[in-house]
Design brief:
It is built from 12 helices and no strands. The chain is mostly helical and 201 residues long.
Length: 201
């Protein structure tokens, strides 16, 4: 897929073609190990924290359950004090409980997420407290390996586009989608190159 995607992006956008040549070969960051619930738990814990701090907290949470990621029912059965002692804030704790409840009662159909359309998967994920559109989009890109996701509200994407296309100000989400329209059906790959372009200068 990546070779076809890169060929397509080279052909439809000379600005992005220049970025691709500068950044080099595409390297997917897809993480497919473990359950969807465990991956979403990780996403919630990592929000707004440094990687090191988040990894420490996630390790303590797993420690409650014998060093393994918990199931939704295990989370729901664990008292607040125990989870807070692992380092979860009250807000993160409420997010984690809401995620567990959504998975446990079927409102978030984790077993079928991979078969849902992008739009339906985003709708299902954002029904959980603490999972916004950006988190859902990144989840589709790097967990579900969806090829055509463009996180239009992402600051890094906006900065990369502003720089590459010589815009006077950051593009709006609507303008990001307009500029990125020719990249379909490989907008996830284009997004990866835009993010990497910020590090490649």
């Amino acid at each position: 897929m990546s070779r076809e995607a890169v060929r397509h992006l080279h052909a439809v956008d000379p600005v992005l073609s220049t970025i691709i040549k500068r950044v080099g070969p595409y390297q997917t960051g897809t993480r497919t190990s473990g359950t969807h619930f465990a991956a979403l738990t990780r996403a919630i814990v990592y929000q707004q924290l440094s990687g090191k701090a988040a990894a420490t907290i996630l390790g303590r949470v797993h420690g409650i359950y014998g060093g393994r990621p918990p199931s939704p029912r295990q989370v729901l059965a664990t008292d607040d004090q125990t989870l807070r002692a692992a380092g979860l804030s009250n807000q993160k704790l409420s997010y984690l409980r809401d995620l567990a409840a959504h998975v446990d009662d079927g409102r978030l159909p984790v077993a079928r997420l991979g078969r849902l359309s992008d739009a339906d998967a985003i709708t299902a994920l954002t029904g959980v407290k603490g999972i916004g559109r950006w988190t859902a989009q990144v989840y589709l890109m790097f967990r579900l390996d969806r090829p055509d996701v463009l996180p239009e509200g992402d600051l890094g994407i906006q900065k990369a586009i502003q720089r590459a296309y010589g815009l006077r100000k950051l593009p709006s989400p609507e303008r990001v989608l307009k500029i990125g329209a020719p990249w379909a059906p490989f907008r996830s790959v284009a997004s990866w190159y835009l993010w990497r372009s910020l590090d490649a200068d």
